[in-house]
Amino acid sequence: MNRFTFAAAAAVTLAAVTGGIAAAPALFAQGAPQVPGAQDASRVTAGTYSADPAHSLIAFEVNHFGFNDYYGIFGDVAGTLEIDPANLDAAKVDVTIPVASVTTASKGLTSHLLRPGKDGGKPDFFGAEPAAARFVSTSVKADGMMAMITGDLTLNGVTKSITFEAEFTGAGINPFNKKETVGFEAETEIKRSDFGVNYGIPMVSDEVELDISVAFEKQ
Fold first, then answer.
1. pLDDT grade for 25, boundaries at 50, 70 and 90
2. d(C-alpha 116, C-alpha 111), whole Å
3. Which CATH number fits domain 3-30+43-218: 2.40.340.10, 1.10.10.10, 2.40.128.110, 3.20.20.140?
4. pTM
């Protein structure tokens, strides 16, 4: 996984993430408490889990003019994971990403992404009131801590089959709400033109790398 990509995008939401830490100073005043999560599959129990929107995000990366890469993020991820450690290939993922919550380091670019089309025409990117994107898995092929997750991605009114390479990153009990939590990171690459987002190609790359980090809490 492109760790730099995710780190650069995640920095945009650092204040939101650390807000939860500031809300529970007692836990962090214990000196060096043990980290509650670990990459230990034996900690995962069967059941249905819900995405934790405060600690889940999708980062995107495009190339700008052939000079450098640029990043943005979608937050407020919602959805479910159904998983049974005894039959990982039967796992199901159904997540929704509110495109309207897109953000970048540039206020002007964020505004452009959500700008309506001129004179009622097609917007350059998502438009003023974009429908949420949705990914629904159709197959899972697990191999140790990794899995290939194939499913249907609906974005901008278009549905395409895509495959994520996913990694199990940790499981344990969330010390704040006492819920069983599992975490995953995943990546894939799509062509935005496949979803009708053609503005600026090829000056801004058609290829978009997606890096996903999601925490799921047991219902």
1. low
2. 10
3. 2.40.128.110
4. 0.86
